[in-house]
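Q: Okay, next protein. This is Putative transcriptional regulator, Crp/Fnr family from Desulfococcus multivorans DSM 2059. I've checked the sequence twice, so it should be correct. Can you predict the 3D structure?
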Amino acid sequence: MKDLAVEHQRIDAYVREGRKADAVQLVFSLIVECAKAGDFSSAYALREKLFDVDAMALVEIIKSAEIIEDEKRGIIEKRHLEIWKKLYETLMPEEATTLYFALKDTIYDVGTTVFRQGFKNRRLYFVDRGELKLICRQGSEERLIRAVGPGTLAGGNTFFAVSVCTTSLVTLGPAKLRYLDHDDFVKWRHTMPSLAGKLERYFAKTAKDYELLKEQDINRRQHSRIRIPGVLNFSILNAAGVPITGIFKGSISDISLGGMSFFIKITNTILPEMLLGRRMRIGFTFSGANSDIKVAKTGIIIGVIDHLFNNYSVHLRFDRELDPLILKAAKTLQPL
């Protein structure tokens, strides 16, 4: 890279000598050099210089803009574009590059809180990689609102409106997120209102935290629970559905079409928080009059509640609702 301070002096000298065409060509060549080197701030500053040197040098002005945008598009991560394809498809090229280069990368370790319930958050998070959980604490109970993965926007409730967080976002494993600062969004309202509007409309189509909380409460009321005794086997799964633990036992508490709960002993106080948001496979058997009824389900842990003396109830939401016939049988049959 050339010394830009020296090159600026050359440009000014050409202008003083009346060699405007030479000054334009020098500025244009420096723009190309900076853009190809990924120094876009200098490229933009030189493009402003081009306007000062000769506002009528339209060929160079247009070409320089195209070159900068092409170079910026060339270094945008393809994986990021694939994940956020639906968003970027709504944007013009200049809007897309403006958004991409405004996003800041951040890497989180397992168990890290990205934003916390009851506190302010003025960042809009774009999840590129990893698994996270959106949770809500109500008294001593911590509830899972939803699992969060690549392609999910998070933090929008406090980004697009002035309020404190009603939920917390916590990583289940290493995660890569990008975030947009609210100050950039405010600036776009004046400099690029089309981008600000499109981003807000895109978020408006996503599920809101308060809507998910309300939906959970409705589902709880809709699905009647049946208390049944018995023992089940369970194991923890990874995102691909492969067990990552051995098989453990728990005491069944109740079951409904949408999920179930059971009790386990936990002596490690860190474990309940680690379990929340994890995927699980359970299995148990009912002994009927003529045959056994086997139940095998997978789901996500939406609650781990402390009942004192190391007794915890684990609340599981099934991936698919239970067969109503099994639920009907559970009212009369006794599990083995």
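A: Here is a summary of the prediction. The chain is about 40% helix and 30% strand. The chain has a mean pLDDT of 86.
Q: Noted. On to the next one.
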